[in-house]
Design goal:
The chain is of the alpha+beta class and 173 residues long. It folds into 2 domains: 74 residues, Helix Hairpins (Orthogonal Bundle), CATH 1.10.287.90; 91 residues, Immunoglobulin-like. Helix content is 36%, strand content 25%. The strands form 2 sheets. Strands 3-2-1-4-7 form a 5-stranded mixed sheet, with no helix packed on it. Strands 5-6 form a two-stranded antiparallel ribbon. 8% of the residues are buried. It catalyses: 4 Fe(II)-[cytochrome c] + O2 + 8 H(+)(in) = 4 Fe(III)-[cytochrome c] + 2 H2O + 4 H(+)(out). Belongs to the cytochrome c oxidase subunit 2 family. This is Cytochrome c oxidase subunit 2.
C-alpha cells in the first residue's frame, strides 16, 4: 500500500541518519583514544558548544517532520468506496459489509489439524475478508469483550479493537 511504502522509506531514512551519527561518534571516540592531545589550553569553546547544541536539534527536526507527515497520512480519510465493520470476539472476528445489504459472517481460526502444507499456523481462517484492489476501504473496528489488535502488516495497518469504542482506519490495497 502507499502508506507501507512511506513507512519503509522513512525507516531507511531514519536508519541512515542513525548510521551517520553513530559513525561520527565512533570516529570521534577512536580519534580521541588514539591521538595525543597537545593543545590542552583551550578555555573558550563557545563555537563548538553552539554547534553540538544546535546540530542535534536540527537532526531531531529533520527526523520528526517526515514522521509527522506519515502519521497524518495514516489518519487521512478519503471518500471510501465502502465500509467494513470488524468486531473482535474472544476467539474469532465478525465482519459486516454494511454497504452491501448487511452481509455478515464470522471468521474462525483453523485448528492445526485442518491446516494444509504451506498454511500459517494461528493465521489461517475459515472465512477470509475479501477486499478490492486500488479502492479506498474504511474499516470500523471494535470489540465485543476483550482488547484485540486488527492488523495487516503488509499494508502497514494496525488498529486496536477496544470494547465500547469504535476505531476506524482507511486503506488502499
Amino acid at each position: 500500500s502507499p502508506i507501507m511504502e512511506e513507512l519503509a522509506t522513512f525507516h531507511d531514512y531514519a536508519f541512515m541518519t542513525m548510521l551517520l551519527i553513530s559513525s561520527l561518534v565512533l570516529y570521534a571516540l577512536l580519534s580521541t583514544l588514539t591521538t595525543k592531545l597537545t593543545n590542552t589550553n583551550i578555555t573558550d569553546a563557545q563555537e563548538m558548544e553552539t554547534i553540538w547544541t544546535i546540530l542535534p536539534a536540527i537532526i531531531l527536526i529533520l527526523i520528526a517532520l517526515p514522521s509527522l507527515r506519515i502519521l497524518y497520512l495514516t489518519d487521512e480519510i478519503n471518500d471510501p468506496s465502502f465500509t467494513i465493520k470488524s468486531i473482535g470476539h474472544q476467539w474469532y472476528w465478525t465482519y459486516e459489509y454494511t454497504d452491501y445489504g448487511g452481509l455478515i459472517f464470522n471468521s474462525y481460526m483453523l485448528p492445526p489439524l485442518f491446516l494444509n502444507p504451506g498454511d500459517l499456523r494461528l493465521l489461517e481462517v475459515d472465512n477470509r475478508v475479501v477486499l478490492p484492489i486500488e479502492a479506498p476501504v474504511r474499516m470500523m473496528i471494535t470489540s465485543q469483550d476483550v482488547l484485540h489488535s486488527w492488523a495487516i502488516p503488509t499494508l502497514g495497518l494496525k488498529t486496536d479493537a477496544v470494547p465500547g469504542r469504535l476505531n476506524q482506519t482507511v486503506f488502499t490495497a
